[in-house]
Structure formats: C-alpha cells, structure tokens
Amino acid sequence: MTVKSFTFNPFQTNCYIAHDEGEAALIDPGTHTEQERQAVLSYLKEHELQVAELLLTHAHIDHIFGCAYFAEHFGKPFKLHKTEVPFIERSQEQAKGFGFPLEQPPLPDEFLEEGQTIRVGSSEWKLLHTPGHSPGSISFFDDETRFVISGDVLFSGSIGRTEGLPATSLPQLMQSIFDKLLPLGDDVTVYPGHGPETTIGREKKRNPFLTGQVPGVSTPKG
Fold it and tell me: CA-to-CA distance for 70 and 49, rounded, in angstroms?
C-alpha cells in the first residue's frame, strides 16, 4: 500500500490518495482551487489508478472543499459516519462563515461505522470511530502496512481542536486517542489531517497532550 499526501487550501489540510494494485482511495479532498483538483487527477492518471473509494475522516469545511467536484467526476458521493451528515447539510453555512465559496456536496448513500472494513486492492482497512474533534470522526487503520489515517484526532505534537467548534468534546477526544489509536502499536505511522506524519510511539513519548504536560488536559484512566 502506497500513501501519497497533498497539502491543500488556506487551512493547510492534508488530502490522501492511498493505493494498492491499481486501486485507490481518495480521502479528505480539501482541494480549494482548480490547480489543486488537477494535482489529484494528475497523480491518479500518472499511476493509472482506479478510484475504488471516496472517504471522509470527518466533514469539517477544510476537508470537504473538493467533495462535490470529485463526487461528480467519479459518479458517487463520499462515504462518512452518519453523525457527520449535519455538517454536509450545513456546508454552505460553514463556508460562508469563513468567507469561502463551496459547491454543495451530495449526501452519502453509504455510511462508515466502527468495525467495518474497507478494501483497496489487496489491502484491508479497519474503521475506528474516534470522536471528540467531531462526533463522527473515523480513522482508517491498515494493520499490514502499519499506518492509520487519523483525520483531526491526533497530530505530530498536538491533538484535534475542541474549542470554538460545534459538537466537540475534549474528554471524548482523549478517550478516542488512548482507547483506539495508542493501542495500535508504537510502530504505526500516523497520517494526520494537518501537519507532518508521525508515529504512535513518538507521540506517546513527546506529545505534551498525551504525557500530562498541558494544563487542563487529563489523560484517561483505566
């Protein structure tokens, strides 16, 4: 499994193309401009990839700029957790609040849930429900290649934002990290929604939010 990352839009959001044996998954298409959209299409064409899955870790504005375009291009909507639907329904409102244009993404016709699997080529991903930054945040875990695409749950040296956003919960976010992500193993590479890739082991040792060094942020017990 190969994971190609792009960084798009004014929020510097990571978009991923993960591919294996000629099949690809497009995750979090934060493409804000035609040039950014063409960068995705050019990579798919260059590597002769067939897009099998259109996926969202969550539906905040910076992760969905390109949803309408790519849904039309590939003839299917993006899959996401059902509790993220209100963010899709209010996507125009989200965009207006930041002063950006946005084409309304279509609603999904299939939802992602904890414990489901996604197949891309010969690779199989386990879906982890990791709420806190948003109620329906999903992380995609590839046990064979040893990586997780975590969206805005865990970053290099930080965690997802829970202030000033609707339906967030810091305790829930910390529980998701400690119960769902850290047990995956220290060797697992983390591909986050923003910033550089990292590993579970590195974050356990150095992330101040996980080591109890940030006032007001407590680590779950048990």
Answer: 15
This prediction has a pTM of 0.95
* Domain annotation for the chain: domains and CATH numbers: 2-206 (3.60.15.10)
In the sheet with 123-129, reading across from the earlier edge strand, the strands are 117-120, 123-129, 138-142, 147-151, 189-192, 198-199
Q: What is the CA radius of gyration of the chain?
A: 16
pLDDT tens across 32-62, in order? 999 999 999 999 999 999 999 999 999 999 9
Residue 155, both tokens = 């970053």
How far is 114 from 4, CA to CA, in rounded Å? 25
Q: How do residues 135-163 score in pLDDT, each as one tens digit? A: 999 999 999 999 999 999 999 999 999 98
How many CB atoms within 10 Å of residue 154?
A: 29
Collapsing DSSP to helix, strand or coil, 161 comes out as: coil
CA atoms within 13 A on the CB side of 158: 11
For residue 53, CA distances in Å to 27, 46, 70, 79, 93 come to 8, 18, 11, 8, 27
